């Protein structure tokens, strides 16, 4: 909605970057012409169904597939015995492709059938005989941590965060010395539940084998190059014999980071030498695939001075990673960094455990662990403000970090713009703030006429890093000039709905000085695009944008050198703009890019190809101190909301909200607004409704569709919402751009939880605050008030 910073020289010079360009494939998307994996049909294609384990924990004593194999229309049945290498995993190879001895979660695939159609495959699955010895499931992480708990994996139920350590530890300063020096110590424990990705596209995969034995998997993976490595390892094939053909995902939110179907379809295609297709039903998707990571324990203890200065914070976290450690270790790494908040707290300690349970494995999801951290640290911050009798904004302002302050992992904040974000949010929301003194006053709310309805306001100040936490995170790009002067840009990421295709094209067009419609993007195909880690972690604009810009600069240099030779001028005398290369000293000496490209192709036989690669500055954790460089670029944001709580029904309505993000440079402001709107939807759903196991620790029955699992609709969005885009250029990003994507989902859940407290006095320490849960809390709160001296129960 607003650009709060004056234009800088960097932003003034751009012509394509910064424009509100529609998505290149937009018409195709809204017309239905864009095809997804589920739309694919190949000659002779077989269809796949899987036998899913009916128990959350069981030992398999016999698998007999003979009846299924003999069923008319069935071509092949595979079990674990058919998998060349039956274990895989990002950090720890603890997950089987198909269950061998132990089924560790409900819905885990035991066998797979390829048949002439889906009905035949489904019928054949029922004929596969499996003998199970049901075992006691361990679904509560705290039970799993007990010494006498049933062991889900050899070696115990606590997963290792790295090769040698069961705990992620951070030690900054001296927390134990901070507590005796404090005027106030505040403790609180928060927890978060399990969420389903709920993307419109379920997992889908089509695999085929060519005459050379190369298997091609048409995939909705968010990380096709990474998954190529996994599939090749499972099938014991060299990389060049496995092609992952991706590029478009029908809604990812993190689910496409998991290897779910592609390894099995590739196996079946090799077995049958025919194309095979597998598309999960919504019920299968909910039953068998990975979920959001849950934190049954986020315990905070903070040391505070009377004036509100937070001098120490101690955090203990328990993550429930489910049956396998897909992203569990990576998740605890992320949350360890962010539980300190965007605050300058000199003494900070973190201890985190990743615990196996008999639930579907926890994967990555938008806001991947950072959203959980925000709920806990901002709820805890609100409790500190209440204990001190300070305005919540005033307390935050006093402690907000500045550029140069120390990070939780012993580093230094670069481009810390959290104060600008908070100030902009306060201005847009109407929360009075004197930036000089830090004094703040909540907005005066008009309370409803109904005595059962209460209104309140809440805030969340936040930050998140860009890309993989503490890990290698390469991004690469290749740009080629075709013979007619048009451009093809090849990048290994996928398009998951955020406009990656268009944003990268804008960066290429800006750097090359050519029209946007002359750029054609090729994404996510391991055979035609350079290696890339994947589309996750809000990394594409920042990391791949830098790689694209570098590739474009190399192409520009080649074009100038070729033109200089033809025009008989020095390279330094030439400039390139609007598709034309011209001499500064002799303006009549000029050539179009098309002329140079045609000359290079037909008279010189020289390709005009530029390559770019970027690897972020990152350093892994010191296992004893937590010293690390988790990311090269932190991004900052602030959200504020006003809610109305009906104390009779427990219903919470978000009346208005403000979301502020510093994006550095809005490559495409239209896309920024779309991401922010979508992030608000995620945050509201996390705060108020999404709960995969509402009767936890009972995990049965499992939701089997959207009739049983509540997700956001347009009617649940805030009645009034304002996006505020700040452009404070990054010192390292392409054209000053910073990340945005997934981080927009982190702010609204804690802001809503804090607003509920402001309205009712109730502390919601476990999200979501469903009506049933909130009514119980309201009743307990009223009961406690009635026991206080002078209290009464109405």
Secondary structure topology:
Elements: H1 9-12, H2 26-31, E1 46-52, E2 58-64, H3 66-70, E3 74-78, E4 87-88, E5 95-96, E6 102-103, E7 109-115, H4 118-127, E8 129-134, H5 141-144, E9 158-159, E10 167-172, H6 175-181, E11 184-192, E12 204-209, E13 215-219, H7 224-235, E14 242-245, H8 262-272, E15 276-279, H9 282-288, E16 294-304, E17 310-322, H10 328-338, E18 347-356, H11 370-388, H12 392-399, H13 418-429, E19 432-433, E20 440-441, E21 453-465, E22 474-481, E23 487-491, H14 500-512, E24 519-523, H15 540-567, E25 574-577, E26 580-583, E27 590-592, H16 593-604, E28 609-615, E29 634-646, E30 652-662, H17 669-688, E31 720-726, H18 748-760, E32 766-767, H19 771-787
Could you please describe the fold and organization of this structure?
- The two termini are about 45 Å apart.
- The chain is of the alpha+beta class.
- The protein is about 30% helix and about 25% strand.
- The protein is globular, with a radius of gyration of 28 Å.
- It contains 19 helices and 32 strands.
- The longest helix is centred in the C-terminal third of the chain and has 28 residues, at about 540-565.
Primary descriptors:
single chain; 794 residues; alpha+beta; seven-stranded mixed β-sheet; 19 helices; globular; disordered N terminus
Largest sheet properties:
7 strands, mixed
Net shape? globular
The oligomerization state is single chain
Q: What is the count of helical runs?
A: 19
The rounded Rg comes to 28 Å
* Mean pLDDT figure: 95
Sequence of strands across the biggest β-sheet: 3-7-1-15-12-13-14
- N- to C-terminal distance: 44 Å
Query: Which structural class matches the secondary elements?
Result: alpha+beta
Share of helical residues = 25-40%
Query: Which strand-content bin applies to the residues?
Result: 15-25%
Query: What is the number of beta strands?
Result: 32
Q: What ranges have pLDDT less than 50 throughout 5 or more consecutive residues?
A: 1-11
